[in-house]
Amino acid sequence: MEQRVNLRFNLNRTDDCQAWEYLRSQTDQRESSLNRTLIEILLEHFAAQEKADSDDALIERIVTAVRKEQRQTPAFSLSQLFQSLASESPSANQESEENEAIVEDFLDNF
Question: Would you say 26 and 44 are in contact if contact means Cβ atoms under 8 Å apart?
Fold first, then answer.
């Protein structure tokens, strides 16, 4: 069974023209038909999107687990580690607060 789709490129529009040129160059590189090239490009795009979504979900689970562990286990707390190291210096309170902010900023990057 076949499904047909008509795809038109208006070469007066910049984005249509860029898409057409990309499709033609990929067709030449892959030495395949326009139809086969378009199918491969779509499948590659969807696979990359699924991988990116999966990676984002994994990163979010890791960040959540680290934050949960940091709150639940004071011995594991990075901020407490920095506090104990900072308490050896004269400006312990200020450095402790700065270190906590650094840890939170680091975790927010994920």
Answer: no
> Hey, what are 18's tokens?
């860029």
Contact between 61 and 54 (Cβ < 8 Å): no
User: Using N-to-C axis directions, what is the helix angle for 34-72 and 14-30, rounded to 10°?
Assistant: 100
Biggest CA–CA distance in the chain, Å, is: 78
The conformation of residue 3, written as its DSSP 8-state character, comes to -
| Helix/strand/coil percent split, the chain, to 5 | 75, 0, 25
User: Model confidence over 52-99: pLDDT tens digits?
Assistant: 888 888 888 888 888 887 776 655 556 666 666 556 555 555 655 666
CA–CA separation, 16 vs 46, rounded Å?
21
DSSP label of 77: -
How many Cβ atoms from other residues are within 10 Å of residue 86's Cβ? 19
**Residue in this structure with the two tokens 């639940």, named with its chain if needed:** 72
